[in-house]
Amino acid sequence: MAPAQVDATEKQDQEQVVPKKLPKGVVLGPDGKPCRTCTDVASWFAMTGGKPKQAATQPADITTAPRASTTTATLPADCPPDVEALGRSSWTLLHSITAAYPTRPTPQLQSETTSFLSAFGKLYPCWVCAEDFQTWMAKNTPRVSSRSEFGTWMCEAHNAVNEKLGKESFDCTRWEERWRTGWKDGRCDP
Ligand SMILES: Cc1cc2nc3c(=O)[nH]c(=O)nc-3n(C[C@H](O)[C@H](O)[C@H](O)COP(=O)(O)OP(=O)(O)OC[C@H]3O[C@@H](n4cnc5c(N)ncnc54)[C@H](O)[C@@H]3O)c2cc1C
Fold first, then answer.
1. Hey, what CATH topology would domain 87-181 get?
2. Closest residue to atom 19 of ligand 1, CA basis
3. Rounded to an integer, what distance in angstroms lies between the CA atom of residue 96 and that of residue 176?
4. Domain spans of the chain?
5. Ligand 1 pocket: which of 41, 44, 158, 179 to mutate (most atoms <8 Å of CB)?
6. Distance 116 CA to ligand 1 centre (A)
7. For the chain, which terminal residue's Cβ has fewer other Cβ atoms within 10 angstroms, N or C?
8. Using one digit for the tens of pLDDT, what is the confidence trace for 165-186?
């Protein structure tokens, strides 16, 4: 990036107004400013006074029970993600990686996978999420010796977050149906 561009970006960051009283749910970043990728869009709207659009329908999903606190505020799909959109996309990537993982990975791939998870835990753009994920991984060492082990470990990692957020736990015996083969009732078959 050219120096002038760097200046403009830094200036924009500095000009971000931080309201004195923050609504519940707004998480600050390490810089003391509201962290968009750590905050759900409804809380973000509450802070900015913006008008959220109502989500038309929630996606059908038999694997998670309906929640009392479902977020109805949405932004157009081409806006920066809030904590929920970031999470959904990230879990899709992580579970899909486990689905494509070999049944018998080489020692080198196992080592690279462990390194990837360590880097992912440090780089995850919601810092509070990242800290908790790192803490969880320190107590639950990644199991990467086979697809089955890795997929189940990832499901358990996701369930730890589900539990923290008060969401329904996912049945980890069914992770492959959700993320690799499609459900046995055939509805995911082309
Ligand atoms: C590493 C990480 C840490 C996070 N930490 C936080 C946090 O601290 N605070 C916060 O507010 N948000 C956090 N999130 C985001 C949060 O987990 C959700 O992604 C977000 O709240 C949106 O939830 P959702 O109900 O739409 O479905 P998601 O939880 O995103 O799940 C997407 C889909 O995955 C399937 N699924 C659900 N559970 C499992 C499972 N255990 N195994 C396999 N498949 C499953 C379901 O079909 C579900 O619809 C984190 C995300 C990641 C990737």
1. Four Helix Bundle (Hemerythrin (Met), subunit A) (1.20.120)
2. 87
3. 10
4. 87-181
5. 158
6. 19
7. C
8. 999 999 999 999 999 999 999 9
